[in-house]
Amino acid sequence: MDGVITQTATIHAKAWKAMLDDFLKGQQGEGFEPFDIEKDYKQYIDGKPRLDGIRSFLESRSISLEEGAHEDHETDTIQGLGKRKNDFFMKLLEEEGVQAFPDALDLIKKWKGAVKLAVISASKNCEYIMKAAGALEYFEVKVDGIVSEEQQLKGKPQPDIFLDASEQLGLDPSQCIVFEDAIAGVVAGKKGGFGLVIGVARNGGERDLINHGADFVVSSLNNVEQKIQEHA
To answer: Which of 96, 128, 154 represents a domain boundary (last residue)?
Structure first.
């Protein structure tokens, strides 16, 4: 969803930076090393379930926190940081709004009815965001953070959520195309044995996606059908 269908990946990155910079400053004082969106977000957080992203980033900084309770909010625990990140995200979402990428919406509308469509997201806000973007109605299957938690599906880079979607669509993974802008998602698509894994690099990072297994990379979805035919 984020970064492929909806223009919310940048909002997520801003929310992560706001929350983690606030946390790091509280832990380490004014001389803390800020969260780097280009390096830290892409390497440790992008595409992963929220709490997995927190664990991964904290490990990169050699910071250990207790898991905490689900109701934690202000406490410096994994759960507490997760709640605070979501607060930052929802505030930014309200301020900036939700838009679908026009090229993605055009392709989805064109393919609706011709192929089976599923939307995948690690976010528990997936349904809200997709509805706000006017895109939810085009998808037969939705596998998001809520579904993953209920079914105990492992997050990316494990392929569980993609495999669950293909099963619900009644298709073998080899019959499916995965569109992903995150390294973790590309890795998951390849692990799951999907027929084609297309990297979507709207703001650079093409080489990273190729190096982690994307069959090819596009900067927009306008000419993706031609690229698929060329790759066949």
So the answer is: 96
